[in-house]
Amino acid sequence: MGKIVSISNQKGGVGKTTTAINLASNLVDLGKKVLLLDIDPQGNSGSGLGLEVQSLTKTTYEVMIGELSAREAIQKTFINNLDIIPSNINLSGLEVDFLGIEKKEFKLKDALASIKESYDYILIDCPPSLGVLTINALCASQSVMITLQTEYFALEGLSQLMRIISLVQSQWNPSLALEGVLLTMYDKRTNLANQVAEDVRNYFKEKVYETVIPRNIKLSEAPSFGKPINYYDPDGVGAKSYKSLAEEILGRA
């Protein structure tokens, strides 16, 4: 049965989608079958894998409102054993659609129940918010990975995310665990990045991955070519970092 991991942080631009795409691709390289589930209305996980997401009619939105089963919305990518349920701007209306609906927190969990045995990992790319979409993801997941950029405001708002995780644990999903904390956009040449990394490691202890993701132009370019970094720049530092992360996650497991 597949392990469902949400990749979350309510701050935007901290590497959630970059991590979702590249971790998924590297887990596949290591022999795993992976589903990438996009619950961000921006749809960047799909476009980062070469899909024209705004024209799609089989997306996370149709799954969440019950028009399609999760299996019906699955799309193959150009990478064997990496599937995706993409999203697009339609998903931004879900908050309104769910007004007054009972047990709305469990819509995603219920939808994934029939397919989770088909994958080794299901990675959920969460939006930069703590609304109904992120809560659905956390209720459906066994664990949550937090991406944290090594910059001045890195820890700002993190306490709010931890409160939401605690809320989900207490009310809906008591088995939800912290998968790990990933430091992103790391520039070892700066004192600030090193200080932030030290502060995060002091707070989260062994939950912080040894692997850090560097600030790297190739990682930024790869989505515009519709490719994960291990296909766009396979010998670069970004590709090596995400390979190391995938190996570390499997080693911990």
Automatic annotation (TrEMBL):
Return the Gene3D superfamilies for the record: P-loop containing nucleotide triphosphate hydrolases (3.40.50.300)
Name all AAA domain ranges: 3-177
Recorded hits in InterPro entries, A to Z, give:
AAA_dom, DNA_Partitioning_ATPase, P-loop_NTPase
Q: Which Pfam families match?
A: AAA_31
Superkingdom: Bacteria
The record's section on SUPFAM superfamilies has: P-loop containing nucleoside triphosphate hydrolases (SSF52540)
Q: Which residues cross the membrane?
A: none
Cross-referenced PANTHER family, in alphabetical order?
P-LOOP CONTAINING NUCLEOSIDE TRIPHOSPHATE HYDROLASE, PARA FAMILY PROTEIN CT_582
Its recorded name reads ParA family protein
The species is Leptospira bouyouniensis
